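Progress note, sequence design subtask.
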């Protein structure tokens, strides 16, 4: 019998799905995941198509200002989440009878954090002496932190495996947002209104979540605040706050530095490329969350296939990433020209470099799951922090020399450093470094092809 077929990880997963699908429990989780995947797919399409139309209308300079404002606020919004997301879901699963106290306490904490964020944004704009239009854009986007507080209802639906209600709200918001953006283009609207749409999106989502929560027989007016529960939640979540802030700096700092060191126009060109390059990042997240449980099962059984399955996951991530990166490298000019027009032609050079960072992003997502399974969260935090430091330092050096090309090279190098090279320097992760090395050079993939 063909050895490749016998050992094919993906075929094993498919066979498992066939036997599991008949079980009611699996059907419940499968449908829940399908709803989430649908929403992400629609968001991807809308983001690229409507986003391209907005970018064409605004032009590189105004589009750069809009993305600068969103990235600037994003640094502060990372704090407003308070790292509570996964903690609240876990607590709701463990103690469903305490739902009112858990949701009420989490909501109060998030609301307080939202107002702190707004004050911090106002103070930052004053100290940085931002122009009035940009300050207003930053503040109106910052108001979204208040509406994001209602995502505690999302956590409730996650804990009860009813994510379809969250998807309903998101799809309605996505549709209304797309229509409004198209109308703003038609009406030749001011840049400020495009910033306001971002906050309006979250306002619609909040209304949708409240509606479905009440429809399911609950009431937000019965939520209760508990000082003791607040202390418990914050005791669990404070390390996650730091992690969230570091990750956001890692992902957003390049656009802020480009805007400050070069110009809004340069930032517009860079943002246009990044939106395409990062649009598919939800795919490795879905793949990892779908395939990793099978790897954990092998570990729990102390099965010898544990490491081989991990290797196959890395291989799969690299193959999927290459399947996206290679065509985009050759079609980068055409993609930018088709979506954004000749005004954004500088974006093409950024795109063909930035798209290769996706390989290491995928490996990083897969290995993050592995680090958690091995109880190595501290190493995960150190890895992300190193990536952020490398990103900032290289941007200071390369952006003045090479402009937005330098920023894209910085992203690629920082991802290589954090998601791969970092593993070489810790004994616990050295084997993972070798596994990723094999995946990057397609060693196992070529072996399987030869065996065919």
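Output:
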């Amino acid at each position: 019998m063909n050895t490749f077929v016998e050992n094919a990880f993906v075929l094993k997963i498919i066979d498992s799905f066939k036997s599991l699908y008949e079980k009611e429990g699996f059907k419940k989780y499968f449908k829940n995941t399908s709803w989430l995947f649908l929403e992400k797919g629609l968001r991807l399409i809308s983001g690229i198509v409507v986003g391209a139309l907005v970018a064409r209308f605004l032009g590189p300079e105004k589009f750069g200002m809009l993305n600068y404002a969103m990235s600037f606020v994003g640094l502060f919004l990372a704090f407003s989440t308070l790292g509570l997301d996964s903690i609240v879901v876990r607590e709701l699963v463990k103690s469903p009878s305490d739902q009112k106290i858990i949701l009420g306490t989490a909501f109060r904490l998030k609301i307080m954090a939202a107002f702190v964020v707004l004050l911090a944004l106002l103070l930052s704009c004053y100290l940085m002496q931002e122009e009035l239009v940009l300050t207003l854009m930053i503040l109106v986007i910052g108001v979204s932190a208040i509406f994001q507080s209602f995502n505690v209802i999302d956590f409730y639906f996650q804990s009860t495996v009813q994510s379809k209600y969250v998807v309903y709200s998101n799809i309605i918001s996505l549709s209304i947002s797309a229509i409004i953006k198209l109308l703003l283009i038609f009406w030749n609207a001011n840049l400020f209104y495009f910033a306001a749409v971002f906050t309006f999106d979250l306002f619609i989502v909040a209304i949708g979540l409240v509606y479905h929560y009440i429809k399911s027989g609950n009431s937000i007016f019965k939520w209760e605040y508990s000082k003791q529960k607040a202390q418990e939640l914050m005791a669990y979540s404070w390390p996650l706050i730091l992690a969230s802030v570091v990750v956001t700096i890692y992902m957003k700092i390049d656009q802020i530095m480009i805007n400050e060191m070069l110009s809004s126009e340069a930032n517009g060109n860079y943002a246009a490329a990044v939106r395409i390059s990062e649009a598919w990042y939800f795919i490795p997240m879905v793949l990892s969350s779908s395939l990793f449980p099978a790897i954990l099962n092998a570990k729990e059984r102390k099965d010898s296939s544990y490491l081989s399955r991990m290797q196959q996951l890395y291989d799969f991530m690299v193959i999927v990433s290459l399947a996206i990166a290679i065509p985009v490298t050759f079609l980068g000019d055409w993609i930018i020209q088709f979506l954004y027009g000749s005004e954004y032609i500088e974006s093409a050079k950024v795109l063909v470099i930035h798209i290769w960072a996706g390989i290491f992003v995928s490996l990083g997502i897969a290995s993050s799951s592995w680090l958690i399974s091995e109880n190595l969260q501290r190493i995960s935090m150190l890895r992300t922090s190193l990536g952020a430091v490398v990103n900032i330092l290289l941007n200071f050096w390369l952006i003045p020399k090479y402009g937005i090309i330098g920023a894209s090279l910085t992203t690629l190098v920082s991802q290589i450093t954090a998601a791969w090279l970092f593993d070489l320097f810790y004994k616990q992760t050295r084997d993972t470094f070798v596994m990723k090395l094999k995946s990057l050079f397609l060693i196992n993939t070529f072996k399987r092809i030869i065996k065919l």
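The first helix runs from residue 3 to 7. Work on this subtask will continue into the next period as scheduled.
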